[in-house]
Amino acid sequence: MAMLMRTDPFRELDRLTQQFFGATGTPTRPAVMPMDAYRSGEEFVVHFDLPGVSPDSIDLDVERNVLTVKAERSPEYGEGADVQVAERPRGVFSRQLFLGESLDAEHIKASYDAGVLTVRIPIAEQAKPRRIAIQGGGEAKQINP
Prior knowledge:
With about 140 residues, this protein is mainly β. It has a single domain (about 5-15, about 30-75, about 90-145), classed as Sandwich (Immunoglobulin-like). It has one helix and ten strands, in the order E-H-E-E-E-E-E-E-E-E-E.
């Protein structure tokens, strides 16, 4: 049973192509948001790398089991600066994750520390294993599913 599903690969490819080539058709540097995702006990944990992003610019939204993370990193230099090298991605970062039915999207928690956004999504109660009593022969037995 999948707990977390990534976006449709073809839609993701279209998005990356637009980011890479931009509206003018000339290559630009894509705004990336690398992530790690894993299950830890009774919750699913996702870490997003967002170094240099102000916590105020991070927007986390859940709608119809789709988690959307948006953030913006602005340049640290002023308009009159004579920029020699500009390799760090800046602008708007966005990532969508489709949450499986086994996750409790109503109780998501998020924190931001040292450039890493951590999102914790509890496993839904109905998705947790439980014992089922079986009646028969005058005595009840417990079975683990």
